[in-house]
Write a structure and sequence with these properties.
Largest sheet: 5 strands, mixed
Number of domains: 1
CATH superfamily: Metalloproteases ("zincins"), catalytic domain
Structural class: alpha/beta
CATH class: Alpha Beta
Number of strands: 5
Strand content: 15-25%
Number of helices: 5
CATH topology: Collagenase (Catalytic Domain)
Distance between the termini: 37 Å
Shape: globular
CATH architecture: 3-Layer(aba) Sandwich
Order of helices and strands: EHEHEEEHHH
Length: 167
Amino acid sequence: MAGKIRVVITNKQKTVKIPTGIRMLVRRCCNAVLQLEKFEGPAEISVTFTDNAGIRELNRNYRDKDIETDVLSFPMGENGVYDTDPETGAKILGDVVISVEKARDQARLFGHTFQREVGYLTAHSVLHLLGYDHMEKLEKVRMREKEELVMEQLGLPASSSYIVDKL
């Protein structure tokens, strides 16, 4: 059974109005991923909403890539070992930074809701905080399956553009 999960959400942008319910959706996403992964004990995740300029600066400073991206993950743990908040005993999983400007644009591009896009980016990032990667093809497929499972659990199933025809 998963412990208490604290999700600290900060909005550092004014470009996109954050719709009602998005913060709750982000919390539900974090919980769903940790439940799916059978994460034990209390945990803490920080989620920051920024704009394209903000995420571009982070991408440049931390990844040497001078381009905006949709989401960045800054895991605090390695190989399942995390720092612990001495006051709460919660494992500090790390930081997720979402460009809500990019999320809005991608939602339009993919033909689904802003909620679906933010949920997907959150699930994707939390999997990174837990050590998942998508550098190899098989890892990418496993990660996508987990992301889609979480999206379905939250009532945000894939648009037709994500669905691969069964052979």
